[in-house]
Amino acid sequence: MALVNEHFLKLQGSYLFSDIAKKVKAYQITHPNKRLIRLGIGDVTRPLPMASIEAMHHAVDELAHAKTFHGYGPEQGYDFLIETIIKHDFTSRGIQLSPSEVFISDGAKSDTGNIGELLRWDNSMCITDPVYPAYIDSNVMCGRAGTLNADGRWSNITYLPCTAENKFIPAIPDHEVDLIYLCYPNNPTGTTLTRDQLKQWVDYALMNDTLIVFDAAYEAYIHDDDVPHSIYEIRGAKKVAIEIRSFSKTAGFTGVRCGYTVVPKEVTAATLEGGRVALNPLWNRRQCTKFNGTSYITQRGAEAVYSPEGRKQVKETIAYYMENARIMREGLTHAGYEVYGGINAPYLWVKAPQGMTSWKFFDELLYNANIVSTPGVGFGPSGEGYLRLTAFGKREDCEEAIKRIGKL
Ligand SMILES: *Cc1c(COP(=O)(O)O)cnc(C)c1O
Q1: Same structural domain, 19 and 71
Q2: Ligand 1 center–CA 2 separation, angstroms
Q3: Which of 71, 79, 231, 371 is an S-S bond match for 365, by CB 3.0 to 4.6 Å?
Q4: How confident is the model at residue 317 (pLDDT cuts 50, 70, 90)?
Q5: Which among 139, 143, 175 is positioned nearest to 160, based on CA atoms?
C-alpha cells in the first residue's frame, strides 16, 4: 500500500487565478461586446531578444551534425553560461564567485521550491506578507509550514506584514528564525529594499544563524542606485544567503525556461550534533540526482542575453515595460489612488479606495472599467485591501486602462 504524503492534503487549492478566470469568463459571456484589458497575470508579452533567437537558431543547427551535437550537458550548466553570468552579474559589481557556486536551472520557481530539500522539515521559517506563493506551498508539502490556522496563516511560519503603514519594509523578527525568504524587488508589491535595509537582514542572519533564500527574479528592473542587485553586495551575505535568479522577467524566458541559483561555498547549515555542513555540495548532489540540466539550446539563448546586442535589446524591452509602469502609476495617482511600486519593478500595488476589500475592488475594475487585475489578498493576509496590476501589457492597453479608470 502506498501511503500518500499527507502534507499535500493540507494545501489549499490555489484557486486565485482560476477564480479570476471564472469571473472574467462569466463577465465576457454576458457582455460579449466589451473589450477586456488584462493586467492580471505576471507574464511578459514582448518577444525574446533577437540575440537570443539567433543564438538558439545556431544551437539548433549545431545539434543537426554529429560533429557539433550535444547530448547530456553538465547538470550544473555549461561553463560558457556560468562564466558569462559571473562576469556580468557579479564580477562587475565587485562580487567574486567561482564557477562551482553557480547552478543553471530551468527557472527560479523550481529552485525556490526545491532548495528546502537541503533543510530538515522542522526548521522555523519566516516570510514577508504578501508573498510569492511558491515559498509557502513548497514548505507545506514537506510539513515545514505546520497546519493552517483559521486566519489563513500557517502555524509554523512567521509572517512579516508589508503594508503602506510600514512602507512595505518588513520588521526584523524579534526572535530567532532558521530560514527566511526575501524577494527584492518584490512580487507582488513592486517595492524594494535599499542597501542599508537589506544589510539589516544580513546582519540579523549572521547574528541568529539564519539562512536567507534571496529571490532576485526582478533584478533587471532596478532603477535606483541605492537598491542592491545582489544580496552579495552586502558584506557577510555569502555566509548566510542563497540567491536565485531567472531569465524569465529579464529576457522573456517565461516559456523558454532558464534561471540560476548561487550557493556560495561559505554557506552552511547545522547538524543536530552541532556540526556545520556546507550546502554547496548538497545542492550539487541534489541537482545531479534529480535534474539533468537545462537544454543546450536554452543555455546558448541565455548566454546571448549578455552579448552587447542582447544587453541592448533587453534594456529596450525593460524600458518599454517600465514606461508602461510610469504611465499607469502617474495616471492612477492623478485619479486619486494610492499607488506603490512601479519604479524598480514591473508591478503596481494599488490601495483599494474607501476601505474596499481586494475582491470588491477587483469586481469594480472588472465590471465598470473592464480591467482584469489580481486581488492582493490572494498573495497573503496582508495583501487584503490592495490590487496588483502588471506593467507587462501592451502600451495602448495601459493607456486605455488609465483612461477607463479616470472615468470611474
Ligand atoms: C516569475 C517569478 C519567478 C519564476 O521565475 P521562473 O524562472 O519563470 O520560474 C520566481 N520568483 C518570483 C518572485 C517571480 O515573480
Answers
A1: no
A2: 33
A3: 371
A4: very high
A5: 175
